[in-house]
Each structure stands twice: as C-alpha cells, then as structure tokens.
Amino acid sequence: MPSLHRRPSRVAIIGTGGIAHAHAEAVRELGDKAELVAVADIDENRARGFAEQFGAERFYTDAAVLLASESLDLVHICTPPKSHVPLALLAQRAGVPALVEKPIALSLEEIDRLVASEERTGVPVLTVFQHRFGEPALRLRRLADSGVLGRAQVATCETLWYRADEYFEVPWRGRWEVEGGGPTMGHGIHQFDLLLAVLGPWSRVSAFAARRSRPTDTEDVSIALAEFENGALATVVNSVVSPRETSRLRFDYEFATVEVEHLYGYTERDWTFTPAPGHEELARLWDGDGDEISGHRLQIEAVLDALADGERPGVGIDESRRTLEFAAATYASAFRGLPVGAGEIDRDDPFFRSMDGGAVPWARVKEVVA
Hints:
With about 375 residues, the protein is α/β, with parallel strands linked by helices. The protein has 13 helices and 14 strands. The strands form two sheets. An eight-stranded mixed β-sheet has the order 13-12-11-7-10-9-8-14. A six-stranded parallel β-sheet has the order 3-2-1-4-5-6, sandwiched between helices. The chain starts with 8 loop residues before the first strand and ends with a helix.
C-alpha cells in the first residue's frame, strides 16, 4: 500500500513541447502528492513561459545543469525521440529515475545502453505507456492471470489514426534517424504495448509495412500477425492514413470476449465484456463504473507511489525492451518478407542498430530513380 503520509515528490520536466503539457497537468492533478520544481528547454522563452504556467520555481536551458542543481525524485523526458536515450543516461548518472515518452529509444542497440546503465547504476528508466494503468486494463490482467477467462485464443489490435501531410512538416517527424519509425513506433505502440501486457511474451511476428500516401521516409501503415508463447494469435494494425480514427483492442478467451474502443484514452464506458454461452456468471466479475480516463496521471501516480515505497515501478526497462523488440521485428519481417522470432534480432543484425535496417523498399526505389 502507498504511504499515507509523505512529502510531495519532487519532479522536473525536460522538454516543454505539446506532450509536456499533459505531464504537467497530471502532476498538478496529483495535488499534495507531487510538485513540479523545475523545467528545462533549449528555448529560454518557452522554458520560462512553461514554468510560469505550471508553477515551477526554476527553469533551465540545459538539462545537465537542471539535473546537477535539483534534488529530484523523478524527471520526465518529453523531448523529440532522438534525445530520449542521451537524456535518460544523463538522468541515471545523476541518480534520478526517468519517465520517458515513447518511443524510449530508436533501436534495440540504444535501449540496451539503458539496460546496461540501469544494471550499473540501479537507477530505473521507465516508459510512458499510460493505457496499462486504467482500471479496466488492470482488471483484465487480473482476470486473465487468474485463469477464470480460460485460455487466450485470438486478439485484434488496431490503431487507425489520421495525420495530414502538414503534421509531418515538423522536422523530426517521419524520419528514421530522428523519430525511429512511423505509426509502428510513434502511434500504435501504445495499443500493442497494452496487447503485450495482457497476452504476455510474443514468440513470432510476420508483417507488412508500406508508405501509401504521406510525405515521409518512414511507413505510414503496418500490419503484423503475432504468435504468443501461450499460443494466442493476434493481428496488429498501425495507420496514420485512416480518416475515421479509432483505437481498438479485442481479446477472445475461451469463456469471454473483452474489448475496448476509444481514441486517445479510454474510460469504463469504452469497454465491453461478453461471456461465452454457458459462462454468463462471469459478467459479475466485470464490474466498474468509474469515469477516469487512461491518461498520464494514472501512470505518474503509480510510479511515484512505487518509488516512495521502495517498490519497482512500471513500465520498467525489461518490458519496454520487449515492446520495442516487437516494433523492430515488425519492420524486419516486413522489409525482409520473412517471419521474425523473439530474440532473433541479435547484435550483428542491421535491425538491431536501426528500425529501418537499411532495407526500406521505397528508399531503394528512390535511390535508383535518383
């Protein structure tokens, strides 16, 4: 149980762009549990304005100076993806746990640097996967783990979003070397992370990826078929070319179907529980009526409670790596035209060093034309 009486956790935010506002609002909603003491951004005016807006006492233009100057319980890293690993390593060296926006790293090689650093320092690096922390998702995991739903059979995971061409005018979007990938890395990763959290370790992936219409170097759609160690099969679709936007997960167990459809955050009302014929009594186990959205506050609160009580917070580096490896396997399978098994992408594999693996079909076509 979390401590009933403790001082507010001291947190800082590095990067004050759009997603940082969600973090700061979440910290504000925690009231006496947490206080935002400092922020950092390379743009001094933006850092100052953000600090004033959210009541931080100090602002910095250098993350290293912030980490050296402040006594912190947690630092939130909300910068563009390419800077995530360098900043997380900096936080570990300063002894400060870091909560990093997705994707935590641009490659398996990068995330393994964090794994090694955590082993040396003992300082955790966590990934923002807030949808794991909504009460319906926690309930599903409890029921599935208890065995009352029977064996997992099949699942569907869809992130069907729409991003216009203008969205990719931001310099770091749609580029392998800066963002790490397209919707597989930057959009659908939230949903398939929850899929993995519920179904457990995956064993094999077969995938397709394409650039259908967006002005990017990366894909704008990918589709994967995944097999899990428990025998379940799942389809995973990631898209930024879908005008009717939705995020959907469906889990079919022997004795019930559990599904959710939302967009950027779910509540209890977005979930449906359907018992199999003859198992109607299971419906009583799906009993929830809250209206909490699966946003950042839930994960941040869980992380701070765990750190305060000396427990291991989620989502830790091992689970983060498993989700990132699923993305790498999706790309490797799509671009090679072969299934990819868990653990198969080793240090000698080009897809270990980058998500494109130097094998993007439309990049080769572009080179030939040029």
